[in-house]
Amino acid sequence: MEYENKMNIYITLKKILSDLGSQGKFLRYIATIIKISPEKRMDIYEDLAEYLDCGVPINRAILNLRDGYLKESKTDITAVALNEVAYRLRNGMNPSKALSPYIPSTEALSITAGDSAGKLVDTLMRLSKSIERNKKIKHEAIMGSITPVFGVITSISSLYFMGLEIIPKFESVMPPEYWSGVPKSLYIASQFIQSPWSLIPVVLIALVIFLIGFTMKSWTGRVRVYADLVPPWSFYRIVNGGNWLVSLSLMSKSGANTIQSLKQMDSIADPWLSERLNKVIYQMENGVSLGKSLEMAGHNFPDKKIVRKLSLLSELPNFDKNLEQTGTRFIEKGERMVKTQSFMFNSFIFAIVGLMAFWFVIGIVDLQIQVGDFYRSKSGI
Prior knowledge:
This protein is an all-alpha fold.
């Protein structure tokens, strides 16, 4: 969703600046902001790994991939990025530095480790697979967050429609002072909606949505540990916890030192992740294993069960291989966890929507009965 929004901005600006002489420089700048899309990164990593495995020099492989995208459009953002990558490689940059402006930082770190250990082909293939797994869990998290928001917006819109359109028509039929029970509560709600105070709930909901988005990356401390157990913060923990596990396993498989890998991740991490990594790094520098360090940190990151599992596995040989398997399984399990939590969260929201609809229907039916009784009493029937 975020990538599509950035692409729409790019397409609009490209049309505006298509006749300007500085278009090439502008496109390179935009490419560093938008990055290469996950789908195209998957293809590029796989194709690049195949070329390198067949002995094709990396610069020629990049140029070949660039030419393929240029056939689609001379201003294709991926072609622009790959052209710049090829230029950087020709000037002596290593693959990770050449690619780093156009891919996520965690992937660049994995490529650095793989290149240093002489396992670049293997690293690229693993990155492609990890992107595919991450796409699924991110999709579930996004859908699990959008549906409740849609339910809340629908409820508020219905309430405002009732208060501004339906209830005022009944007021002209029967004076509100004769209303009672549920219809009276509808009248009170209608009066509130027609007043300037009705903007308060809208502002509050907008503020809550903003705060949730803001706190995802920046909120730290003990309270956040408990917030990470419930949606939407739990979605963020599951998605980023899975990404972290896979990235760490990729770097470990590539021959990187675990503590050094964690420090590199910490240097590009948001405050939420950095808080978790700092405590783990501190414990590991004092001789504690990764699993035990995660347990001692007390954040239940990336997940309580995974922490217990890593505490045991980190004491066994072949931990690098076990870490990769654990990360893969956690992402698969995380997808199911997000689905389950989304279902529970959505059920709660739609239960509220259903109660509001029930309140409205009962109120209107009761009001119609009261209107009939009112006119029968006036006519003496």
